[in-house]
Amino acid sequence: MDPAPPARSRLSRFRFTNMRHLVILAALTLAATWLAGCSTTPPKPGPADLRLSAPDNATEREYLGLTNATTRFALEEIRCEVLVIDCFDMYCHICQTGAGHVNELYRLVQQRGLGSRVKFLGLGLGDSPLEVATYKDKFQVPFPVFSDRRSIVAKQFGPVRLPNLLVLRKQADRLQVANSSPGLLLDPSAVLSHIQTALRQDQSYNWNDPAQANQPTCGSASGACKNASLPSRKVGGAKNLIAE
Predict the structure, then answer these.
(1) What is the DSSP letter of 76?
(2) CA pair distance 210, 199, nearest whole angstrom
(3) Cα(153)–Cα(144) distance, rounded to whole angstroms?
(4) Which end of the chain has the lower number of beta carbons within 10 A, N or C?
């Protein structure tokens, strides 16, 4: 009969076996966690995610109909009958080209005496607060602009191709899409005419402009976002736009 292995040898073998089991268990746990993370669907945005930070500027707060106590607000809280939203991206050259067209629409609304009924705001999709502030300053945007970093505020009304002008009509304290105009805004006067019609209607009113719908957008073959006029550089590891 073979002699029994020394106690120290048996103990070493026991420790090695247990260690191997622990390593295998840890590897399986990590693999399961990774697979679970890959298959997890991001949570749907809730009401809090659809709220914007109130502007610090008192004039802009008054323009939107927000009180001094308001810190965050939903678009439905804006005091208006029609809300026009200019959706843009800092680095989209079509957005930059079209900024003046949207500014012209804003001026036409003011000239027609509709400024208290029709309000404007800009949403920088994927842009930081610094980027949207620089865009506003560079292109002299006359209405408030906000960072929509995750693009969820604009996309609650459907898919958005940039640039995109959303015209929303308020009915029973809810905003309904009257028109979505992708690409470079062709005719501000035509949009103003539709807005005036929407204001006269007691029921929902929407329109579609085929020529506008065929305009190139950023990311399309004929409108890839490149050669933007605003230079950018990395600051602190984050994408921020610095005007030069």
Answers:
(1) G
(2) 22
(3) 15
(4) N
The Cα–Cα gap between 87 and 163 comes to 6
Closest to 149 (Cα-Cα) out of 128, 165, 133 = 128
Alpha carbon 225 to its chain's center: 17
Residue spans per domain, the chain: 49-241
Q: Is this model's pTM higher than 0.85 or not?
A: no
How many angstroms separate the Cα of 80 from the Cα of each of 65, 74, 162, 170, 221? 8, 13, 24, 7, 37
Q: Distance between CA 204 and CA 202 in Å, rounded?
A: 7
Residue 4 is classified by DSSP as P
At 48, which amino acid appears? A
pLDDT tens string 106-146: 999 999 999 999 999 999 999 999 999 999 999 999 999 99
Residue 72: DSSP 8-state = E
Q: Decide if domain 49-241 falls under CATH 2.10.70.10.
A: no
- Rounded (10°) angle between helices 93-111 and 188-200: 50
- What's the gap between Cα 49 and its chain centre? 11
Tens digit of each residue's pLDDT (9 = 90 or more) over 200-244: 887 677 777 777 777 888 865 444 454 444 544 333 333 434 333
